[in-house]
Amino acid sequence: MSDDMLRAPAEVKYAEELDWLESIDDGPKPFTWRLSPRMIRLFILGSERSDGLDRQIPQKWFGDRSFVERAIVTLASDRGLLLIGDPGTGKSWLAELLSAAICRNSTLVVQGTAGTTEDHIKYSWNVSMVIAKGQSRESMIPSPIMTAMEGGVIGRFEELTRSTSDVQDALISILSEKYVSIPELDDDNIVFAQPGFSIIATANSRDRGVNDLSSALKRRFNFVRIPVVTNKKSEAEIVRFRTEELLRRHQIELDLPPTLLDILLQSFADLRSAAASATSDDEKLESALSTAEQIGVLEDAILHSHFFGDRVLRAQTLAGSLVGSLARRSPEDLAILNKYWHGVVEPRSKKGGGPWQEFLEGGREAIATLS
Ligand SMILES: Nc1ncnc2c1ncn2[C@@H]1O[C@H](COP(=O)(O)OP(=O)(O)OP(=O)(O)O)[C@@H](O)[C@H]1O
Ligand SMILES: [Mg+2]
User: Fold this and answer.
1) What are phi and psi of 105, to 5 degrees?
2) The whole model's pTM is what?
């Protein structure tokens, strides 16, 4: 089934693994959860030898175990879960994994935008059916959140802080009363949430602040802050995990020298520390330099080498992709990258030579082309 989708949701992609975990799971499960909290943690963070399982469960989300535990415990309580952090820190991915493991459904998602209305989180009407047959439960279109309530499963709300305050207010009543009333109908006009219903929301800390959430809504969520991964070892693992998946998906055979992965990680680490010591926004790249962006750079370089290169990833190509992805504002971002190439890459290439030398040349060319 997952072969004919451009991107399968986690419950489809890992269906076989989830079935297996369910079959060996004898731990206590809250509500109608498909897996116990321990098994959910294991599914997300991967197994270790000490777990004594017959097969190895790969790690899917990389980050502190305490975040995952707090997230699971929150969902077993009657509060919603709000994952907050910089762009590209894996919030949506973690929300998807949690929903897949808890209820095998991660697709009941509402995307928060400035245009999201109350209808998107409650219900709307099929106009032609209303004209033909009048307003009834049949002519009502439940939102993903309402569907989640009726099914006793997890509903997701992406980018919560982008939605307007009346939408956020509608969520308050859903989270506290756990029902939605449908005043247009005379009977059968309340939809009650079934046990197991909860909401996982995500919010990007670079967008309009979380402080803009009303305090009433804040009280109904437990916050879990996801930091940018700065540990090089975990970051290398995430990048490798995603890259292998990409190569498989495109059926690409490509040589990926480990030294290039090091260069990528090192340059992101350098640029991050430069951003941390910058005194104004103009001295800071617009990019959050998250792991997701690192993956994006590598993906770009891999596809470039695959389609236009000679099936080996070269440092030059990598440099081109890095500059291309990070130079969003001209001239600010280009100036920052130029400074980095002069001040850091050049001395490194003098000392290390080899791929750093190629990286230096590739970056210089790309910066010159964009300037
Ligand atoms: N800690 C992580 N573990 C595993 N994968 C990660 C991690 N961080 C980022 N990624 C990868 O980066 C990609 C982007 O992450 P995701 O979309 O979940 O970020 P996000 O925090 O929701 O960002 P945004 O705020 O922009 O929506 C994911 O597909 C995932 O593969
Ligand atoms: Mg997201």
Assistant:
1) -150, 110
2) 0.87
